[in-house]
Amino acid sequence: MIDKSSPIPAYYQLKEDIKKKISEGTWSVGQCIDSERELSKNYSVSRMTVRQALGELVQEGLIVRQKGVGTFVCETKVKQKDMMSFSEIVSRTGRTLETKVLQFKEIDASKELKDIFNKDKIYIINRMRIVNGFSIANEIVYIPCDYLDIKDKGELNGSLYKVLEEEGYKIVNSETSIQALLMEDKYKRIFNTKESVPLLKTCSKNMTAEDKVIFIEEAIYRSDKYLLEVNISSKGGGKLK
């Protein structure tokens, strides 16, 4: 099954075939795949080739290796790489998204929010994002009341990005800080779990092309089910110091 005359490296061909088998259900989530020895024999490649293929699949989060036990298929994480709404991310993976609006309320802007928006009245929107039955994200958004023309919180069950685009605001940039959190009891209640799963917190200012801040978001994600990729580059082509 490995074309050794192909310019495509053997480890890459093997990796892609394993990925195909996982996507087709040959090996399902939690199932142990073939051992290194079996893969080496079945594909007529060296153990080193097998290790390289499996190593990259581990890095991609598709499998996990347990020493002395075997190699197991992981549950695929919700993966965010570019600027897009959580709704769009989940939709692209073909999974089911449910949104519970826990709070939609008009409040007086704090001094910090007033300094950012120069507005007196702010909406606070607290939403729980549930993917395939698992509570994955808790998002709290602060946005000036005159940026949203919403009467019913049910309108917030979908993408906030799309709602804002209908109001004439297109989000193209975000300034975000990221930190790890410990799974305290309050988070176990929020995420409806008894497990001590890893958490990721992001705080972001979301802006238009003119750098106008439209909303602030504080979000907490289950990082065992959500992956955030950050691309860092030196735009001027200079050296990083």
UniProtKB/TrEMBL annotation:
* Domain named HTH gntR-type: residues: 8-76
Write down the InterPro entries for this protein, in alphabetical order: Bact_HTH_transcr_reg, Chorismate_lyase_/UTRA_dom_sf, Tscrpt_reg_HTH_GntR, UTRA, WH-like_DNA-bd_sf, WH_DNA-bd_sf
Which SMART domains is this protein grouped with?
Answer: HTH_GNTR, UTRA
What stretch or stretches form a coiled coil here?
Answer: none
Q: Which UniProt keywords apply?
A: DNA-binding, Transcription, Transcription regulation
Asked if the record carries the keyword Heme, the reply is no
Q: Which GO terms describe its biological process?
A: negative regulation of DNA-templated transcription
The GO terms this record gives for MF are: DNA binding; DNA-binding transcription factor activity
Which protein are we looking at? GntR family transcriptional regulator
Species annotation: Clostridium putrefaciens
